[in-house]
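Section 5.1 Outputs to date
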Amino acid sequence: MINEAKKKTIDDIFAEGTLIDSALKLAGEKALLQHKKLGNPVVVWRDGKVVWIPPEEIPLPENTPPLEKNLDPVSPSVDRIAETHQNWYNKKS
């Protein structure tokens, strides 16, 4: 369990930015993996144009687990961000 003194507030998280960056990177990687596994293309903006990338050409990070593994596990950092956001929202209400 996280020491109470070490918990970050939502303001700290936004000021630092690394947890948000990590969550966005994880979400993007998970979306690419899901599209590739399900055989769906993705759309990107490249050189001022919309480009469709077929599933077999979707790039994945080197550390991506094999496609047979579950897509559903949620990163603890994403859980922490959601929990922190909910706590912050509840305090504002």
